[in-house]
């Protein structure tokens, strides 16, 4: 669409129309004031943005040169640490402090629980994530392998259903024990004199009774609370399960995803104004509360909308409500990318992160102006996750940008809360100072193995060949990284004020394994962790009933730091490189399959997040972070002669045919083999063969360029 001029900016007509006709009406912000304020923000901060990126490149060049000069010699850790301090990569740690963040909603500050991350461009997924605040434990146990096997084909299996009911009652006995009996033997739940009686027996901890619906003598549901999370027992004699249950218990519903990140970054493919408008329009619908999506399911039309709040009576019979939706963050783009949606007066593209900051916060005004009804933040805050920041100066920059956005939009200082993703090495080793740089608005920090490993490989590309990916996870640096993130968060006063998060469970079909393993996250002191689906959120919520995260945090805080920066600076190189050629081939092919399976949908269809089978046919959630680590890993092995270009190209072509076969049922899919000339295949190859040249090893520049080429025909 043709561009229009706004306050000296050349704005794509689609974006200008969306801002002026859809986003701003109802906010109290006039279009002229918006564009004038935005133009002033860009005039000040766009040059600073460029300078920060140049600083990244200068530091990387110095690190590369240091390793090249010492190639063939044993790694000198102390000299390396000293060098990083001399060039300003590793900064001295300042005095103790505590964050000053105020008006943080309880879902973030006081209630540990699962967190979803979803592409904002997919309205159905966004609505599913927002509505994942509540989930049926019965459905999640029945429909997954959580109990050790997947459900049989065909209709409802009564034997499996009975096992689900029994497993759910085991959970109830663990979280809400009854004095003198088991939930498995109960016939009647009643509310009497403000207390819950279960076959006339009290709960061991009566304070866990939170409320009910219906008649106290025969309630429609009973609301319980444990470690801040609610559980609703739903009774229905007409339900096909409740009618066969001695207590008429038809379902056990768990408060599940307490928060959800609506992602404008790693899980989307937004390369131009049209794409950005699609993302912003869905965020607008979420903030206004009117987003809807119609689709066909099981042969019938379904319309999905945001779930309403849930109404109850407290133990004494007074009405109250609980939110029906997860509290929503919006993840903006990082500092690196620009977007052609707006051209600056000098003709250059707008820094996309600055555009995201201005537009997403302006859209959130619709939520801030509400005083009742379907609200996101009841305490008047806007929650923005900022990814891929490198060190304290970049966090300080993000803090200053948000302060300017607040000023332009007439918001009180620190209305915008900031999430700092601890996923870049320069942030990890300076985390305390990163938090200090935005201490008035920090409400979230987290670890993310994939991006963090991608940056680890790129930063130390010249140091030598890295271990195989599975072995990188076992090296000491990752334990130090995970522990130090929690330790620093607690030192900086995040407990009870902000989220300390852990990364994604990437295998959405393996819920039994998730139940076995992901309890490690709350046990580590994290009060949130990422899950790949609403179902996974409900199952992961079980872990927060088993673990009192705030008790864990209190114990860890007394014990002091378990990890130090020196541990994080241990480079996970392959100390033993006696791999067989079969092992090398398998590693490269696994990386190639992940890259190709993700990139082909990104480039050809604009799909930013995909479930891609690995070489063992295990479906893995792939986004740009997983693509980054795979591409950098192969680029590292190429650079150090572990594999040749010919071997890598052979692997890419072999796995392209595999990916073609895996996508054969997709009518929109364009095969890569046998010609290997398509844009998607070429883009995937460039991510590997040009991997060392990419800024910080990011995939975005190449992916965006190729996607724009495809969109242009």
Automatic annotation (TrEMBL):
<feature type="binding site">
    <location>
        <position position="331"/>
    </location>
    <ligand>
        <name>glyoxylate</name>
    </ligand>
</feature>
<feature type="active site" description="Proton acceptor">
    <location>
        <position position="331"/>
    </location>
</feature>
<dbReference type="InterPro" id="IPR048356">
    <property type="entry name" value="MS_N"/>
</dbReference>
<dbReference type="InterPro" id="IPR048357">
    <property type="entry name" value="MSG_insertion"/>
</dbReference>
<feature type="binding site">
    <location>
        <position position="304"/>
    </location>
    <ligand>
        <name>acetyl-CoA</name>
    </ligand>
</feature>
<keyword id="KW-0460">Magnesium</keyword>
<dbReference type="Pfam" id="PF01274">
    <property type="entry name" value="MS_TIM-barrel"/>
</dbReference>
<feature type="domain" description="Malate synthase G alpha-beta insertion">
    <location>
        <begin position="156"/>
        <end position="226"/>
    </location>
</feature>
<dbReference type="InterPro" id="IPR006253">
    <property type="entry name" value="Malate_synthG"/>
</dbReference>
<feature type="active site" description="Proton donor">
    <location>
        <position position="623"/>
    </location>
</feature>
<feature type="domain" description="Malate synthase N-terminal">
    <location>
        <begin position="17"/>
        <end position="71"/>
    </location>
</feature>
<dbReference type="Pfam" id="PF20656">
    <property type="entry name" value="MS_N"/>
</dbReference>
<keyword id="KW-0329">Glyoxylate bypass</keyword>
<dbReference type="InterPro" id="IPR011076">
    <property type="entry name" value="Malate_synth_sf"/>
</dbReference>
<protein>
    <recommendedName>
        <fullName>Malate synthase G</fullName>
        <ecNumber>2.3.3.9</ecNumber>
    </recommendedName>
</protein>
<comment type="function">
    <text>Involved in the glycolate utilization. Catalyzes the condensation and subsequent hydrolysis of acetyl-coenzyme A (acetyl-CoA) and glyoxylate to form malate and CoA.</text>
</comment>
<dbReference type="InterPro" id="IPR046363">
    <property type="entry name" value="MS_N_TIM-barrel_dom"/>
</dbReference>
<feature type="binding site">
    <location>
        <position position="532"/>
    </location>
    <ligand>
        <name>acetyl-CoA</name>
    </ligand>
</feature>
<keyword id="KW-0479">Metal-binding</keyword>
<feature type="modified residue" description="Cysteine sulfenic acid (-SOH)">
    <location>
        <position position="609"/>
    </location>
</feature>
<dbReference type="InterPro" id="IPR048355">
    <property type="entry name" value="MS_C"/>
</dbReference>
<feature type="binding site">
    <location>
        <position position="451"/>
    </location>
    <ligand>
        <name>Mg(2+)</name>
    </ligand>
</feature>
<feature type="binding site">
    <location>
        <position position="423"/>
    </location>
    <ligand>
        <name>glyoxylate</name>
    </ligand>
</feature>
<dbReference type="InterPro" id="IPR001465">
    <property type="entry name" value="Malate_synthase_TIM"/>
</dbReference>
<keyword id="KW-0012">Acyltransferase</keyword>
<feature type="domain" description="Malate synthase C-terminal">
    <location>
        <begin position="584"/>
        <end position="687"/>
    </location>
</feature>
<feature type="binding site">
    <location>
        <begin position="124"/>
        <end position="125"/>
    </location>
    <ligand>
        <name>acetyl-CoA</name>
    </ligand>
</feature>
<feature type="domain" description="Malate synthase TIM barrel">
    <location>
        <begin position="328"/>
        <end position="562"/>
    </location>
</feature>
<dbReference type="InterPro" id="IPR044856">
    <property type="entry name" value="Malate_synth_C_sf"/>
</dbReference>
<keyword id="KW-0808">Transferase</keyword>
<comment type="pathway">
    <text>Carbohydrate metabolism; glyoxylate cycle; (S)-malate from isocitrate: step 2/2.</text>
</comment>
<feature type="binding site">
    <location>
        <position position="267"/>
    </location>
    <ligand>
        <name>acetyl-CoA</name>
    </ligand>
</feature>
<comment type="subunit">
    <text>Monomer.</text>
</comment>
<feature type="binding site">
    <location>
        <position position="423"/>
    </location>
    <ligand>
        <name>Mg(2+)</name>
    </ligand>
</feature>
<comment type="similarity">
    <text>Belongs to the malate synthase family. GlcB subfamily.</text>
</comment>
<keyword id="KW-0558">Oxidation</keyword>
<feature type="binding site">
    <location>
        <begin position="448"/>
        <end position="451"/>
    </location>
    <ligand>
        <name>glyoxylate</name>
    </ligand>
</feature>
<keyword id="KW-0816">Tricarboxylic acid cycle</keyword>
<dbReference type="Pfam" id="PF20659">
    <property type="entry name" value="MS_C"/>
</dbReference>
<feature type="binding site">
    <location>
        <position position="117"/>
    </location>
    <ligand>
        <name>acetyl-CoA</name>
    </ligand>
</feature>
<dbReference type="Pfam" id="PF20658">
    <property type="entry name" value="MSG_insertion"/>
</dbReference>
<dbReference type="GO" id="GO:0004474">
    <property type="term" value="F:malate synthase activity"/>
</dbReference>
């Amino acid at each position: 669409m043709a561009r229009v001029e706004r306050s000296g900016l050349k704005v794509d007509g689609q974006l200008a129309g969306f801002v002026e006709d859809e986003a701003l009406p109802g906010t109290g912000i006039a279009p002229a004031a918006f564009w004038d304020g935005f133009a002033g923000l860009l005039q000040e901060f766009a040059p600073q943005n460029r300078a920060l990126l140049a600083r990244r490149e200068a530091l990387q060049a110095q690190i590369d040169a240091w390793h090249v000069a010492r190639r063939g010699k044993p790694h000198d850790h102390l000299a390396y640490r000293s060098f990083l301090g001399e060039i300003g990569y590793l900064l001295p740690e300042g005095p103790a402090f505590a964050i000053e963040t105020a008006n943080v909603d309880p879902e973030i500050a006081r209630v540990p629980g699962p967190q979803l991350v979803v592409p904002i461009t997919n309205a159905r997924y966004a609505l599913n994530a927002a509505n994942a605040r509540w989930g049926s434990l019965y459905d999640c146990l029945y429909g997954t392998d959580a109990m050790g096997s997947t459900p049989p084909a065909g209709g409802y299996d009564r034997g499996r259903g009975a096992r689900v009911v029994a497993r759910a009652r085991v959970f109830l006995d663990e979280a809400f024990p009854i004095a003198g009996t088991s939930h498995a033997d109960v016939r009647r739940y009643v509310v009497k004199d403000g207390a819950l009686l279960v076959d006339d027996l009290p709960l061991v901890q009566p304070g866990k009774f939170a409320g009910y619906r219906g008649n106290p003598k025969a309630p429609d549901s009973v609301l319980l609370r444990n470690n801040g999370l609610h559980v609703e027992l739903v009774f229905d004699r007409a339900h096909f399960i409740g009618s066969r249950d001695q207590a008429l218990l038809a379902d056990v519903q768990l408060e599940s995803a307490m928060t959800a990140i609506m992602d404008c970054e790693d899980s989307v493919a937004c390369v131009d104004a049209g794409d950005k408008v699609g993302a912003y329009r869905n965020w607008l619908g979420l903030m206004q509360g009117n987003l809807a999506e119609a689709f066909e399911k099981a042969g019938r039309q379904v319309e999905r909308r945001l779930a309403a709040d849930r109404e109850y009576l407290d133990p004494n019979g007074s009405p109250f409500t609980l939110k029906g939706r997860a509290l929503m963050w919006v993840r903006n783009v990082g500092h690196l990318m620009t977007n052609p949606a707006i051209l600056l007066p000098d003709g250059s593209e707008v820094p996309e992160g600055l555009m995201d900051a201005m537009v997403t916060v302006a859209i959130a005004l619709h939520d801030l102006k509400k005083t009742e009804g379907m609200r996101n933040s009841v305490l008047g805050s806007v929650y923005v996750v900022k990814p891929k920041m490198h060190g304290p100066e970049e966090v300080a920059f993000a803090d200053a940008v948000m302060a300017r956005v607040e000023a332009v939009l007439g918001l009180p200082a620190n209305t915008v809360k900031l999430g700092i993703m601890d996923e870049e090495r320069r942030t990890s080793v300076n985390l305390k100072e990163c938090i200090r740089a935005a201490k008035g608005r920090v409400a979230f920090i987290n670890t993310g193995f994939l991006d963090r490993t991608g940056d680890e490989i790129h930063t130390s590309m010249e140091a030598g060949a890295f271990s195989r990916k599975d072995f990188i996870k076992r090296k000491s640096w990752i334990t130090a990284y995970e522990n130090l993130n929690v330790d620093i968060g607690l030192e900086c006063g995040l407990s009870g004020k902000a989220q300390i998060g852990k990364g994604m469970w990437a295998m959405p079909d393996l819920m039994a394994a998730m139940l076995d393993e992901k309890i490690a996250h709350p046990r580590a002191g994290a009060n949130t962790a990422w899950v790949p689906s609403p179902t996974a959120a409900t199952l992961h919520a079980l872990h927060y009933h088993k673990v009192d995260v705030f008790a864990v945090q209190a114990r860890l805080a007394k014990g002091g730091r378990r990890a130090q920066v020196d541990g994080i600076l241990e480079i996970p190189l392959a100390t033993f490189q006696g791999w067989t050629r079969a092992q090398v081939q398998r590693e490269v092919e696994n990386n190639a399959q992940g890259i190709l399976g993700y990139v082909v949908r990104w480039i050809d269809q604009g799909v930013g997040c995909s479930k891609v089978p690995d070489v063992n046919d295990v479906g893995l959630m792939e986004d740009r972070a997983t693509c980054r680590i795979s591409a950098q890993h192969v680029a590292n092995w190429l650079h150090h002669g572990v594999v040749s270009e010919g071997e890598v190209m052979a692997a890419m072509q072999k796995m392209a045919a595999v990916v073609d076969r895996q996508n054969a049922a997709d009518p929109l899919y364009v095969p890569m083999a046998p010609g290997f000339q398509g844009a998607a295949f070429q883009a995937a190859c460039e991510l590997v063969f040009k991997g060392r040249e990419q800024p910080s090893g990011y995939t975005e520049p190449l992916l965006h360029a190729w996607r724009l080429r495809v969109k242009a025909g």
